[in-house]
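ZP: hey, is the manganese (II) ion complex queued? I don't see it on the tracker
AM: it wasn't, my bad. submitting now with these inputs:
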Amino acid sequence: MTQARWQGALRDILSVLVYGCILLVKTYCVKYSLVGNYPLHRSFLLGTLGAVIVITALLLLLRPRARYYAFLGINLLITIILVADVVYGRYFRDVTSVALLKQARLAGEVQESVFALIEPRDLAYFIDMLVLVPLLCFQRDKRQPQSGLKWPLRLVLTVICLLVGANLTQASIDSLQQRQPGLIRAFWDKQVVAHNIGTLNFHAIDAWRYLKKQMTSTKLSQEEQAAVAQWFAEHNAEGNKQYHNLMQGKNLIMVQLEAFQGFVLNFKINGQEVTPNLNRLAKKSLTFNNIYAQTAGGGTSDAEFLANVSLYPAREGAAFYEFYTNTFQSLPMAAKEQGYETVVMHANRPGFWNRTHMYTALGFDTYYSDLDFDIDEVFGLGLTDHSFYRQAVQKMQQMQQPFYAFLVSLSSHFPFVDANVSLSDRLDVGAWQGTFIGNYLQNIHFADEAVGVLIDELQAAGLWDNSVVVIYGDHTAIPHGRSQELAKLLYGKEGLDELQWQEEQKVVMMLHLPGDRLRGVNDRTAGQIDIFPTLANLLGFKSKYAAGRDLLNTDNGFVCFRNGTWINDDVIYFRSQRKLLDLKTGTELAAEDFAAEIERAEIELKVSDQLLEYDLIRQWQTEADG
Ligand code: GP9
Ligand code: MN
């Protein structure tokens, strides 16, 4: 090898090392800018190293001059994305995404505040360009430098580095999958994904998801669109309805309770009520005791979506993340049409479940996140429900009436314990102390105590008597893997059969009207999708595109889940197994005898999906305006 070749080889290796270091340093500066010294899981380092090695390996394939140009381009692109993350993170404590950057015009006032957040020091991320670009001009007239490594060797080195980089990345993804299964698919917290697999990998996955969605998006034929429109028109036909407008002009306060599984209501352990406040309220309310959680990949946010939009959750991932650029006709929008002021409050980071953007799309006037609450008392994921409700009522008092306030609680979130706050002296769970179920019951008891605070505060503020208060659970809490423990708790036996397990997929739900009107028990089989149309009828709102039903004007029970399984008053149909069971006897029935019901459920899911996936409301509104 000649000396020139040696030098060339050295330059090849050094250049990719320098390029890689620049990217690494920038990624770490962003990490420090966003979370300071907070230690990230080592999978962040693995993922970041993996991504940088993959990028630099590809650069090694190129000849020096082309490599330099390519690096300038990649470096500029990555720097812009990283700076966008820093600036956006300052306000939302979240990372950006392709869809977000693309529709940055969505919220004018947000855009303004983001620009106001750019600080001069952010420009430091571009400082390397000050050296790299002039260097380019300096080299311009010179002879194209030759690569020291012959291309077969470069190819071999590239392949080796690609394998190493890909493996490191995969290891970091696997580590996150293990610690938080499903997170990468549902993307419920983009920041957590970025902080675990590395910012560069996060953006690559996000871009890939975005591209895939764009590539697979087709248009729905005119006939199919007409069929969807007709289904919704018939389904939501205005007729002579019982209790129509009964609560016209009243405030609406809807409280979504974290993980309030149905069985907790009126449940006693060691002779003590787990939910004394809700039990008392239930006696004065219209209590629904057969409401099933219909949530899917979007967890809490799916429940918010079901209750405020009355459509089925997204087939994959979370509607809050997948469809936040859609046009909706939501409960807050319907309330606004009737002159209501609308607000949503949840004391967690606004980036969680993409709430900032989805709440804008749902038409809420105001969103109060943890940034707007005084975090004076903490349990689990954040502010205690007690303090949250107290401050929420203060905020409601400032609102113009009538208003619609949607409150999403937090204190009873998995893992149901807080290392710094013991709940054991509040509820004695005996032998269950320290177990998953015992912790859950104590946590529910704590959250119920907060519901008591809410009721007291609403009464003291003079809001209780002119407000419709809806309380429901977002999803279940006991996973299938713990059904043995649940069986022991509820029935003192070893396990639950298929029907009993299904029975436990219910959540708490009650509707309190001023003067305790309509109090009683409604045992119609139904789901969270029915909340919006039921309230719409009572309060005189429109719900033209609801897939659910008004539970005060329905004689037949029906609930369908995201996976196609459905239950009516008599049978349950497990779609994946095409199996039908009689609810009372548990005996299997012939699916052919229920062909009409099976088809009805299929169609309901299909039209709901089509409305969502093809953003049909926007299309129809544009056509009507045009
Ligand atoms: C966090 C909360 C949790 O803000 O809504 O969501 P989950 O993990 O229950 O889906
Ligand atoms: Mn939840």
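AM: back. The chain has a mean pLDDT of 92.
ZP: great, adding it to the tracker
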